[in-house]
Amino acid sequence: MALENDSVSLLFENFYYINDDIPDEINLENKKIEIKRVLLVFDKLPDENNRILLEKILSAVKIRNDEVEIVLKSDYGKFIEQSFEVTVFWDDAEHENEKYNVVKNEKSTILKCDSLNKIGSNQQLKAKLWNCLKGIFL
What we know:
The chain is of the alpha/beta class. It has 4 helices and 5 strands. The chain has one domain: Uracil-DNA Glycosylase, subunit E (3-Layer(aba) Sandwich). It has a 5-stranded mixed β-sheet with strand order 2-1-3-5-4, covered by helices on one side. Helix 2 (48-60) links the parallel strand 1 (38-42) and strand 2 (68-72).
């Protein structure tokens, strides 16, 4: 009579099944681990016009799309443990007085600014953002 592995475990208090599918070691040498350089945090995802503006901004500071992670503010907690060179909070209304002040620590740089909508239609805000981004990336 043949018993299935699950049935055998019911016969013994301490029964260990060795799974041959589990490797003895993990070789990460040939695996590409994707680490993003920039985290962009939005209250809501940008619409088409704002995406175009965002692409122009990233291009101007020589940031490729594959270097960027875009997340919603509600999901930011899932990314807080990861290390990004730069984190940009767009339309961070909670910290109005901290906008356009670049904050650096030993691990990363943080920038809080207005929404892409506001920036796109305001030359003064564009200039403020550009000065901050030049200081960070160029």
